Amino acid sequence: MSIMYKQVIPKLRFPEFGGMWEVKKFGDIAKFIGGGTPSTKTNEYWRGEVPWISSSDLIEGDVHRIKIHRFITEEAIKSSATKIIPAGSVLIVSRVGVGKVAINKVPLCTSQDFQCAILTSADKIFIAYLIQFKAQKFTQLNQGTSIKGVVKEDLNNLPLSLPLLSEQTKIADFLTVIDDYIQKLTKKKVLLEQYKKGLMQQIFSQKIRFKADNGNDYQVWEIKKIKEAVTVNPITKQKLPAAFNYIDLESVENGVLNKTIFLNIKEAPSRAQRLLQKNDILYQMVRPYQKNNLFFDLEQNNYVASTGYAQLRTVNNPQYIYQYLHTDSFVNDVMLRCTGTSYPAINSTDLSDIKILLPSLPEQTKIAKLLTVMDEKIRLNNTLLEQSKLFKKAMLQQLFV
């Protein structure tokens, strides 16, 4: 049965389509099947051939891919609430991980965190994207306190605005192209990061060595303490500016300065003490395993960082030092000296005593140049990935009602 609404037209449409969209309840075009979990105490149940998934096997924002890695037996299905969901159904996470949506390409079973829509009409991919668009409203339909989610009745009564099948398919195909591009960028991100990590392991273990421009070998690497290679928290006679951009521990992520807070010195926190100059390095001393460090390459002299960072300044190649601080061996050495469990932290004195490998300055420069080029490739790919996700979000908001 259609629901009578006033004007139902999306903000953006393909030019070949016109007319009003029809509003129906989700239950008018689908029937819903829940799921369950066979006993994990019976090992034999988990040695079958029928795929079984939980909410963690769906990928946030991706309706086309599911990570299938667990399989159950027919006996497990009979002994539990799980059921076989036919291929081409719309799998909706309704409890833990509420809002994730995917389409199964093969018959499978699900946990109790799902309500699976078996469509009687409509384009399955269109419906999956439409539910993904509406998922933000699911949290408003909470049933219970310990586990937030939606129930079958909520989905049955959920109003959906539907165009003709041909327009549904056009929208689904368009959004699929965007998702395929996002998937390619996501895979490239993983590959670039893996390649850089492997490259760093080869370089800093000295399995890969650079040669001088004349073909000669560079000298043997030295082992020095941090405080012998850099100045830790340099003392300056220069006073803090009357107003400045403040960098706290939330400002940096994956080597990128995402945000600063512009503060008057009178309202600045007491931790605002590290006055930066170009080529300084900020090393995150709280939860250093996150590697949220910053190479400061700006010319401005009105940036001040929190004492939650160690400020490092060096006459060596600063990019080399910055890259070395991200090696697994260095981070492990830091973690061994950290105190605290929930928020492990290292102090500047202990950080200063950690040893690093130091090539000659010309070799430092070549290593830094190579790894910096890799960082730029990763950063560019990440920017394209985030822009593509934002574009998709905008399209969902304009293509659906």
Description:
The protein has 401 residues and is of the alpha+beta class. It has 3 domains: 22-162, DNA methylase specificity domains (Adenine-n6-DNA-methyltransferase TaqI, Chain A, domain 2, Alpha-Beta Complex), CATH 3.90.220.20; 164-221 and 361-401, Helix Hairpins, CATH 1.10.287.1120; 222-358, DNA methylase specificity domains (Adenine-n6-DNA-methyltransferase TaqI, Chain A, domain 2). 32% of the residues lie in helices and 19% in strands. It is built from 10 helices and 21 strands. It has helices spanning 26-29, 74-78, 124-134, 152-156, 165-204, 226-229, 318-324, 328-336, 348-352, 361-399, and strands spanning 22-25, 30-33, 50-53, 71-72, 90-93, 101-103, 109-110, 114-119, 159-162, 222-225, 231-232, 243-247, 252-253, 256-257, 261-264, 272-275, 280-284, 294-296, 303-306, 309-313, 355-358. Strands 2-8-5-6 form a 4-stranded antiparallel β-sheet. The chain has a 4-stranded antiparallel β-sheet with strand order 11-20-17-18. β13 and β14 form a beta hairpin. α7 (318-324) packs across α10 (361-399). 29% of the residues are buried. Mean pLDDT is 93; it is low at 143-147.
